[in-house]
Amino acid sequence: MEEDVRGIMFSGQKLWAATGNGVYSYSFRSGKWHHFTADDGLVYNKCRDITRDEKGTIWVATDGGLTGITEKNGHYTFRSFTTSDGLTSNTLYFVIPDGLGRLWIGHE
Length: 108
What we know:
Layout: E1 5-11, E2 14-19, E3 22-27, E4 33-36, E5 47-52, E6 58-62, E7 65-72, E8 75-81, E9 92-97, E10 103-107
Antiparallel strand pairs: 1-2, 2-3, 3-4, 5-6, 6-7, 7-8, 9-10
């Protein structure tokens, strides 16, 4: 991976990285990288932050909105949110989950 890494986190047996060209995950179990872009379901490729909530959803703050990624049996599901869904801005700088099931989002 030769990208501009902007956010990084661990979740289970995976390392996740938010970059200027999508999201990468590295499986310590298989030793393989997985690259996710807008073609896969991210709302935008320029990612700024990444985190995981208590339910296991991976949240990605991008320059085009917010994307939640869930994994079940090796299959990924993407759900994105933009100003059309109620966000104040699509340019997001960070996302932080709290212990009450809410996401705190820094935006432009």
